[in-house]
Amino acid sequence: MTTILNIQGLTKAYSGGTLALTGIDLTVESGEFIAVIGPSGAGKSTLLRSINRLVEPTDGTITFLGEVMSSKNKGSLRRLRSQIGMIFQHYNLVNRSSVLENVLHGRLGYMSPLAGVFSRYSEADKQAAIDLLVKVGLANEVYKRADELSGGQKQRVGISRALMQQPKLILADEPIASLDPKSSAVVMDTIYENCRLQGIACLVNLHQVEVAKKYATRIIGIKAGTKVFDGTADQLTDEMIFNIYEGKEHEMHANQAGA
Ligand SMILES: Nc1ncnc2c1ncn2[C@@H]1O[C@H](COP(=O)(O)OP(=O)(O)OP(=O)(O)O)[C@@H](O)[C@H]1O
Question: Start and end of every ABC transporter domain (predicted)?
Fold first, then answer.
């Protein structure tokens, strides 16, 4: 196994004074599918967003593919970020653009800014985007506007866009939180299968403990900004789950993704 990501002492204090993360250490190896669980406000989104510096950490070191992710070196940050795919709860698609165009946006990090502005994608990229859309079951949606799609379809566009980056790591921030159970299962299967087949490491934030147990090779439990559990689904006992969700037990009920 190869180490993809190494996080040491990650701490984030927001400007208002909220201490969202304290001293998180985490190593991610190639091929791992890691679910991050914890109650609302525990710091799951902050953790994922600190990795690619959508959120600027207050302290700590993040090493991706052996290089330190530093916002001080814009060139290397852009290069490293291009290999990290991000999947969002609310999809973050350009609604007025076609499905195909949205998937092609995954190539922007590899193009010159000018080529990107004029949407000068190569024929190979266009074909790769169509192939991905066919693979995720959206062959009939390629030329539709993104806002014509259902939530589950939009998320499969989001997944395709992330895969277009040919990433080494995918960060999925509550990818099924806005979806019905059937769409959630399709979306989780799609993320899981693509990561497995292509050896992409994945960190996925999930509210549903049973979904985490179903898919994850490893589960991280976050409580009030600290890592309180790091182990397999079998090691995640009911006692540990209650400890992680203490006082917010109503948030952990599974009702999605075939769990
Ligand atoms: N931009 C921000 N400015 C100030 N405080 C923030 C900001 N973003 C998050 N926080 C605070 O940081 C803490 C962690 O939030 P975060 O969104 O990372 O948690 P979470 O576990 O992802 O929650 P949820 O499951 O509800 O998305 C919370 O107390 C939150 O209110």
Answer: 5-249
Number of helices (H), then strands (E), belonging to the chain: the values are: 9, 10
Tokens standing for residue 182: 């059937």
Tell me the CA–centroid distance for residue 209 and ligand 1, in Å.
19
Residue tagged 């989001």 (tokens):
158
Query: pLDDT (tens digit, 9 = 90+) per residue, 198-210?
Result: 999 999 999 999 9
Does pLDDT of 95 surpass 70? yes
ipTM for the complex?
0.97
**Closest protein CA for atom 7 of ligand 1:** 14
Amino acid 54 reads L
Between 253 and 63, whose confidence is greater? 63
pLDDT tens, residue by residue, 163-192: 999 999 999 999 999 999 999 999 999 999
Query: How is the chain split into domains, by residue range?
Result: 1-83+169-179+207-259, 87-166
**What is the structure's pLDDT at 76?**
87
Element (H, E) at 27: strand 19-29
Buried b (16+ CB within 10 A) or exposed e, 72-99: eeeeebeebbbbbbbbbbebebeeebbb
Residue 256's pLDDT band, with cuts at 50, 70 and 90, is very low
Torsion angle, CA of 106/115/124/133, rounded to 10 degrees?
30
Atom of ligand 1 nearest to the CA of 16: 4
Distance from residue 46's CA to the centre of ligand 1 (Å) = 6
Give the pocket of ligand 1 (CB within 6 Å): 14, 16, 18, 20, 38, 40-46
State whether CATH 3.40.50.300 applies to domain 1-83+169-179+207-259: yes
